[in-house]
Automatic annotation (TrEMBL):
Domain of life: Eukaryota
Membrane topology: Single-pass type II membrane protein; Single-pass membrane protein
Compartment annotation: Endomembrane system; Golgi apparatus membrane; Membrane
Entry EC number(s): 2.1.1.-
SUPFAM superfamilies (UniProt xref): S-adenosyl-L-methionine-dependent methyltransferases
Name the record gives this protein: Methyltransferase
GO biological process: methylation
Gene Ontology terms, MF aspect: methyltransferase activity
Family: Belongs to the methyltransferase superfamily.
Source organism per UniProt: Papaver atlanticum
Any one Gene Ontology cellular component term annotated for this protein: endosome
PANTHER family, alphabetized: METHYLTRANSFERASE, SAM-DEPENDENT METHYLTRANSFERASE
TM spans (from-to): 33-51
Keyword terms of this UniProt record: Glycoprotein, Golgi apparatus, Membrane, Methyltransferase, Signal-anchor, Transferase, Transmembrane, Transmembrane helix
């Protein structure tokens, strides 16, 4: 059964009409005779319907175009402008997508900030020991919501970068607790209808710039050597926000706890962050990912559990990388009174940290004030004084199987080297050169089935794809989209092709992907994370401006519900945000049937190589609507 719709469906029919007309032989190869008949009827009713609608607004323009060009090649355009930013600018309207298929209703208002796998009520049913209750605990099938998460009343498009670094609309995250609790530390101030972020933190109340410059006096941050940073217990991510001035990108995380909305604030500011905690489960990153790891009074018990947490940092830290620890117990002799902690406890805590650092072959490079910096050895041969026979060494040198796996109390071994001066795992170019250089994992053949030639061809292909996207959406690299997600990132070539100081990309590696290339993505100086799209992502609602879904629904066919994945995409997408689907046409038809009931406006486009290619591009814009209203950019 084919459902013909008034707006989005016009585009659906039109695309099939173009395919059939452009290359009937190809269409016959892909479709049954009955489908060809339906395509013909579809084009006929499309033309007829447009004329019938003449005189009723938007149908006039369609009828006029069909009068001039009746070969079904005219495709109405979506409008990608925002209409609900701070100054409420007015733009052209977007075609509505009304369908006869299942309508998905809005969720109740209480779910405005719902985080399915970090739900507070569910969390309290789990043990507090080891922070288990703050880890991911996703709802079982019978408890999943099958509705659209509403935006709060008054929701406004975030300020453009870099203004968003310093200002967030109060209506978007209406939580004032941090303005009181962290007032003297300059985390955030409430000023009328906005929050202002002065750039302060618990360890840098006078601002992140001076703090970063202090670190940069020891660590080569300015020359591109350090590009990727892991910020544990990030607060509102001011450290990561100000690192961006140095062309350094941080993967920041913090739990959803009594510090309400700290990660939500980070993402509203346009800074990469996820909801996460150092507990019993491995971090969702591959071995040797980060050039630097950072903890600023993050309250992680580094010396506990025989150094388990430091061992996990060591796993994800690149050989030659740095670890920065700021706050207790560093410089405890001068601070134990102000910290209101027994000096004996602080002394023992620092002793344990120093001992574990030596076991890990981290050399202490600096201790100034309350900040200490260690550097990891570049290889095992340079690790003097460690007797590996006396240590518990992990079996694998390149651990990628980390999804829901327990943290191991073992030391990750270095890859083998041929000399003491060689960097284990390969020497990286400084950024931005490393973005397009051959990553060591590719050059060494460490990723089965991917050669240097494959890598270069993938980069070339995605430059072509992104150019096609820019023809569809002229605002793609204008600064309109700050927080971007690639749901099936591959080698990170989409992110590399779209790279700009105006935006950042969260590269997601599905845990069921045939080839695990997240390590390659980090070697390029990009960031990313492992995830299973059968579950909710570790973020708040409305945190991404644009989502790219290449082959996602083909990958997850027969794995889980397409509707569940689409509802999760809707949850994390901002009002008036955009999704670009790239997939086989048969898959996109099924996807489009579902999204027709989701308050999304749609457009299907041919592959850039022409209508005969079965892979198509489906572009959608999420309508603006808030709690208790049916208001929309389309109305």
């Amino acid at each position: 059964m084919l459902i013909i719709t008034k707006s989005g469906g016009d585009i659906f029919c039109l695309d099939w009409c173009i395919m059939a007309k452009g290359n009937p032989k190809e269409s016959r190869m892909r479709s049954s005779t009955s489908i060809i008949i339906v395509i013909g009827l579809c084009c006929f009713f499309y033309i007829l319907g447009a004329w019938q609608r003449s005189g009723f607004g938007k149908g006039d323009s369609i009828a006029e175009k069909i009068t001039k060009q009746t070969d079904c090649t005219v495709v109405p355009s979506l409008n990608f402008e925002t209409h609900h930013s701070s100054d409420r600018e007015v733009g052209l309207t977007v075609d509505e997508s009304e369908t006869k298929v299942k309508e998905i209703k809005p969720c109740p208002a209480k779910y405005t900030d719902y985080t399915p796998c970090h739900d507070q009520k569910r969390a309290m049913t789990f043990p507090r020991e080891g922070m288990v209750y703050r880890e991911r605990h996703c709802p079982p099938e019978e408890e999943k919501l099958h509705c659209l998460i509403p935006a709060p009343k008054g929701y406004a498009t975030p300020f453009p970068w870099p203004k968003s670094r310093d200002y967030v609309h109060f209506a978007n995250a209406p939580y004032k607790s941090l303005t009181v609790e962290k007032a003297i530390q300059n985390w955030v101030h409430y000023e009328g209808s906005v929050f202002r972020f002065p750039g302060g933190g618990t360890q840098f109340p006078q601002g992140a710039d001076a703090y970063i410059n202090q670190i940069a006096s020891v660590i080569p941050i300015k020359n591109g050597t350090v590009r990727t940073v892991l910020d544990t217990g990030c607060g509102v991510a001011s450290f990561g926000a100000y690192l961006l001035k140095k062309n350094v990108i941080a993967m920041s995380f913090a739990p959803r706890d009594n510090h309400e909305a700290q990660v939500q604030f980070a993402l509203e500011r346009g800074v990469p962050a996820i909801v996460a905690v150092f507990g019993t489960i491995k971090l969702p990153y591959p071995t040797r990912s980060f050039d630097m790891a950072h903890c600023s009074r993050c309250l992680i018990p580094w010396g506990a559990n025989d150094g388990m947490y430091m061992m996990e940092v060591d796993r994800v830290l690149r050989p030659g990388g740095y670890w920065v620890l700021s706050g207790p117990p560093i410089n405890w002799k001068n601070n134990y009174i102000s910290w209101q902690r027994p000096k004996e406890d602080l002394q023992e805590e620092q002793r344990k940290i120093e001992k574990i650092a030596k076991r890990l072959c981290w050399e202490k490079k600096s201790e100034k004030g309350e900040t200490a910096i260690w550097r990891k050895s570049i290889n095992a041969d340079a690790c003097r004084g460690r007797d590996e026979s006396q240590e518990t060494m992990c079996e694998a040198t390149d651990t990628t199987d980390v999804w829901y796996k327990k943290i191991d109390k073992c030391i990750t071994p270095y890859p083998e080297v041929s000399s003491r001066s060689e960097v284990a795992g390969g020497q990286l170019k400084p950024f931005p050169e490393r973005l397009h250089a051959i990553p060591p994992r590719i050059a060494s053949g460490s990723v089965p089935g991917i050669s240097v030639e494959d890598y270069l061809e993938d980069n070339k292909l995605w430059k072509k794809h992104v150019n096609a996207y820019k023809r569809i959406n002229k605002l793609l690299d204008s600064g309109r989209y700050r927080n971007i997600m690639d749901m099936n990132a591959g080698l990170g070539s989409f992110a590399a092709a779209i790279d700009s100081p105006k935006l950042w990309v969260m590269n997601v590696m599905p845990n069921i992907a045939e080839k695990d290339t997240l390590g390659v993505i980090y070697e390029r100086g990009l960031i990313g994370i492992y995830h299973d799209w059968c579950e909710a992502f570790s973020t708040y609602p409305r945190t991404y401006d644009l989502i790219h879904a290449n082959g996602v629904f083909s990958l997850y066919q027969d794995k889980c519900s397409a509707e569940d994945i689409l509802l999760e995409m809707d949850r994390i997408l901002r009002p008036e945000g955009t999704v670009i689907f790239r997939d086989e046409v048969e898959v996109l038809i099924k996807v489009k049937k579902i999204i027709s009931g989701m308050r999304w406006n749609t457009r299907i486009s041919d592959h850039e190589d022409g209508p005969q290619v079965p892979e198509k591009i489906l572009v959608v814009v999420k309508q603006y609507w808030t709690v208790g209203g049916n208001n929309s950019t389309s109305s």
